[in-house]
Amino acid sequence: MRESVGINDEGRLVFRKRKSYRIFEPFVDHPDPDLLSYDYEIRHKYLNNPEEVEADTEFRSLKDSYDRLGYPLPGRPAYLVHSFEQKFGEDFININETLNLMLLKLAPSVVSLCSFIDDKRLFTCSGIVIESTNGCAVILTSASLVATTNGESARAVSENVKIFVHFTDGPAYEASVIGCCLHYNVAFVRVHKHHKDVLSLLCLQGERMESMPEAVFALGRHYVSQEFMVASGESVFQRNNFDCVELMFSSCKITKCGIGGPLVNSKGYVVGVNFFNTDDTPYLPSLLVRRCWDHIKTYGSVVHLHFGWRIRPVIQMNAELLYNLCESFEFAFDCLLVEEVASSSPAYRSGIRNGDIAVELFGEPAVATPVPTYAEILLEKSNLLLEKENVQVQVKILRKSTHSQIDSKYLTIDATKLSSRDFYRWPLPQAEWEIKPSD
After folding, report:
1. In 143-205, at which residue ranges do the beta strands (DSSP E only) sit?
2. What does pTM read for this prediction?
3. pLDDT digits over 349-383, tens only?
4. Cα-flanking dihedrals φ and ψ of residue 176, to 5°?
5. Which value, to the nearest 10 degrees, does the dihedral of the CA atoms of residues 306, 311, 313, 317 take?
6. Which domains does the chain have, with CATH numbers?
7. Rounded distance, CA 310 to CA 403, Å?
8. Selection from 162, 177, 164 nearest residue 119 by Cα
9. Which of 89, 126, 294, 309 could form a disulfide with 261 if both were Cys (CB 3.0 to 4.6 A apart)?
């Protein structure tokens, strides 16, 4: 029989042999998935009946082991990359003593989560405790933990998903979903466990989000080893090419197990929730996360106003585009450029087109705030949709006519509730095998 690695009832990694087991440390970053089992049945019966577990694993085919972890079958000897088992971060020795103490104080609030559908793993990620009342802890994480893909882009929350949470040590706790926002890819889950360590969401506003780069730290916890992980970097201001235009970026380097974990500043405040990309680390700012949580607590779900346009504050455009725009329009910088309008969207039906300049919105002058702040304003206004199918929003736009004149007009958008087909897409690099170099 092949020796194999699993997780016992205490959530510990164990090295299994027939009629015996021992704790196996350390855990390698690129394991052979055939040796690793997250099986739900094994987790709950291992210590009670180890011989039955041996029967489970002894005759399991190689392909079945990979399938249960959601990994492809390798064709030849190779390294698995973009796996959920790959760790990230650096030793604390590389960070100064004051920051070390601050980060260690945050460690108990950072958790790891893993979800399963039947006996197959769905997702593994990190999260943070944001509230703890009445013997229950509320954990913020990524909605990918509970979402399944239906078609190319539509996602839905799985009804039969099982979620397990690891804190600093000890057993895994089963969790339930309170609510989630598939559009912004955040979820909130509840664990029946009192937890005194809670992290505060720092909701930056307006110009403070566009201040000079600051030192930040991406935090996460490894599900198997339960190791606390830290990657240092700084906030980075760059053009966003993702579907979710509200994302911001840091230079911290994480792996997939850091998805859903917090990005904190040097004062220990959470400034965002991390996601994974091979080149940089995008994060959703805390002000949007906070607004999503307020919606779920107040309304039971997150309600979005849907315009169907992609806008950007004029002042945030690069110098060349800004110069070209200034040649066409004479205006103050406190306005919004309509970069793209989806066909058949509420904005398109109102007459708004690509390249228009919005100078008034909701009956007030448009303010050149960062995109996340503008999105937070829309979430605040979304309560208008609670008892209506649509809401009329007046917009004043400027447009260059065919005779090089500037036309000014008021248009009315019949804003609707955002439907699942219009949710942002959240692509994620899939686990794949890299061929080992020949000796």
Report:
1. 147-150, 154-157, 161-166, 173-181, 186-191
2. 0.80
3. 999 998 888 888 887 887 766 778 888 888 888 87
4. -125, 150
5. 160
6. 4-73 (no CATH), 81-298+422-439 (2.40.10.120), 305-417 (2.30.42.10)
7. 26
8. 162
9. 126
